[in-house]
Each structure stands twice: as structure tokens, then as C-alpha cells.
Here is the input.
Amino acid sequence: MGRNVIAGLAATCALVALGQAYVASIPLLTVRAQAATSPPPTGRAATPGETLSRPVAIDIVKGADGWLFPGWDYLVDERQNQTAQAVLQAVKMAGEAKARGSRVILLLVPDKARVHVDLLPADRAAWTRHHSAGFEQLAETLRAKGLEVETAWPAFSPRDAHWTGESGEAVARQLAAKLADVARPNGPALPVPRWIDEKRYGDLANLARSRGDLSLPEDVFKRRDYVAPIAGEPVIEVVGNSFIDTYYGLPQELSRQLHIPVTRRVRQSAPGPWQAMRDYITAGKNRPVIVWQLQETSFSNFGPDALQP
Here is the structure.
């Protein structure tokens, strides 16, 4: 529990710093996890002749029902030059890992605004729907360049930038189905841990509170009690940011589903997945499988040039 609290505080501090950098440069809710493989309905599509202008840039977007969204998330087809450069860097870094014999699966996660578009303010919802094909276009561009891409459509927490613990596990099961060839059905079996309801402020709520908005409530975060993944030399290394930390359950569930050792390499904040992959390459490891978690905003905003120290 202590480690989870410390990790949560570290993630919040990183998010606060990230939100501050972004600004310089320019009743209780519960969430039910949706299917990790199916995109949510996006409502009415913008008509070809519809005039839209990008909403004013702010660091925290306040949506319906008290939901908060990261204002620094950009849709991939809003910043095509940035995205194109990030795609080339992703191909290069994945190639370095594959050259040592690793299978690399790029786990692509959409922006919270894209998943929960119906909770956005009207102008941002219209803008997001207008760019509704951008995420899949990015995935297809990466596939066309030879990368193995798995997309996820998780549910996010109301006042937090992360997916829910239920969604983290759903994505792990989605990956396990894709990686059935490395499973060891007769290997060690992990128990299914109990769910824990943890009441705390989300990271976006904490960022807003640090700026004087004390009206936001705490949320209930549903997570599994921690059970260590299977011991031994890892078959899979999951590389990314706080989305794939043990708090949200993905490494443990992937280990439990496949009956194999799974490890993780985490760098906090949106640029973190680039640094985590660079760390893996520099370390000279040679895992059979690398799952590289990248967010939509990793390409469209915080690309490989925005690495953490």
C-alpha cells in the first residue's frame, strides 16, 4: 500500500509540473470499464461544410458531471508535422529493439477526450468528433511502417488522467489473447486478488486544487490488492508511463493470464514512454516480447524531443 501511495504522489507531482509547463507555453462518480477493444460511440459526425475553430487552449478542461480532461492533449491530426516526426522516431526505436530479437507490440492509447467525447463541453466535443478518424489513422500509419500495433479503448476516471483499474486489467487480457504463443498454461498460477476501493483526489483534481480550486470532490478508485507477478526471468517487459504501473494492474494481470514472468519499465508523465523505451534500449536487455505503451498525445504533443531528464 505504501509503495502505491508513493507512486501515486509521484505521478501527481509529475502531472502538476507538466500542466504548469503547458500553461507557460501557451457527489462521487464511479466508472464502469467498457470493452477494451471497442471504440465508444462518438455521436454526430461533423458535416463537410461545418465551420469549426479549435477551442482556446487551457490546461484543465471542465466537462459535464464534474469530469476533468487534460487540456494539453492534442488530437493526432491537429499537429501533423509533430506526429510525423514522432512516428519516424517510434519506427527507429522499435527497430533497435527488434534488431536484438525482441517482438515489439506498440500499445496505442487514445486521449481521454476521444474516449469520453460526450462529456466534453460542446465546442470541444464538436472539434473532437471532427477529428474522429485521427487515432485510427495514426494506428494504420504505424502498421504501414511495419510496426505491430494494438489499440485500446479504456474507460478513464472522472477527475484523473489515467484509465481505471478495471480497464488496465481489460487491456492486459486483450494483450494476453494476442500473446497466447508465449503462454505457459502449466506454469505458476497467480491468485485473483480482491478489489479495493480507495478514496482520494484524482491527479487532475490535485492540479486544479494546487491552483486554488478546492471545490472538487474525491473519487473512488477501484484497484486490485497487489499480488507480485510470477517470479523468474521476464518473458515480457512492459515499457511506458504510469498507465502501466502496478497500481492499475496491467503487469500483474498479464502475468496471471499467461502464467509467465512479466516486468515493467515506467517513466512518469506523457513524454515518459519515449524515455522508458530509450532506457530499455540503453540497458541492453533482450526480452522475448516488449509491449511499448504510447498515448495519442505522445505523438501529437509530447514527442521524442520532450524526454524527461
